[in-house]
Amino acid sequence: MINTLARIDQLASSGTTAWHRASAISKLLLATTIITLAIASRSIALLGSLYAFAWLLVITSRLPARLVLAAASYPLLFSALFVLGSWDQTWQTPVRLLLRPLTASLTAVWLVGTTPYPDLFAPISRVLPRSVGDGLFLTYRGLFELMASAERLWRALRLRGGTQGSPRRRLNLAGESLGSLVLFGFERSQRQYAAMLLRGHSGRICGCRHWAEWTREDAWVALAGAGVAAASLLLWRKA
Predict the structure, then answer these.
(1) Is residue 49 part of a domain?
(2) Cβ–Cβ contacts within 10 Å for residue 143, how many?
(3) Confidence of residue 209 (pLDDT cuts 50, 70, 90)
C-alpha cells in the first residue's frame, strides 16, 4: 500500500497532462460533483455513465493502470460485504451499491494523482478550522513515514522469526511492535514540532497561493463538468 500511495504522490507532481496543469480548485469542484452525484443518484444509467466518465479521467491523465486498479479496488471488499447484507433479490441493488464506491474511488485517485498535496489541502484548509486543516496537511506527509516504518518493522520480524512460534508468542510480539510504532510516531511529532518552532512557526501553516489561479487547461475541467451536468439531467430518473 505504501508503494502505491508514494507512486501516486510522485505522479501528482511530475505529470504533464492538461489535468495536472489545471488549477486545484476546479478539479476539486469537479470531483466533488461526481462523487456527490454517485452517492445521491439511484439511476443505474447515470451511475454507469459516471463510472465510465471516471475511467475516462484516469486514462487521459496517463496514470499507470496497475496503480489505478490497486488504489481504486480497496473499497471492493467492504462493498461486497455491504451488498451481501443488503441484497433484496434484485440485480439493480448490488449493481447500484458497487458502482457508487467504485466511481468515488476512481474519481479520488484521479484527483490525488493529478494534484500535488499542497495544492489539494490549500482549498480544504480554507473551509476547515485552522487546527484541523494544518493537522491534515502534516498527517498526510507523516503517514508515509509511519507506514514505511511499519513495513521495515514487519520485514525485520519475519527475518528474525517473529512470525513463527505459538500464537501467544506472536501476539506478544505484535503488541510490542505496535507499541514501538506508537512511540516512534510520538517522538517524530515532537521533533517535527520543535523544528517548526525553530523555523519561526507561529500557529499557522501557510499553504500555497496558486491553487486558485485559473489556467487555460481549466477549460477542459469546465467541459468535463458540463458533460457530467448534461448526463445528470438526462439520466437522473432512468433506472
Answers:
(1) yes
(2) 12
(3) low
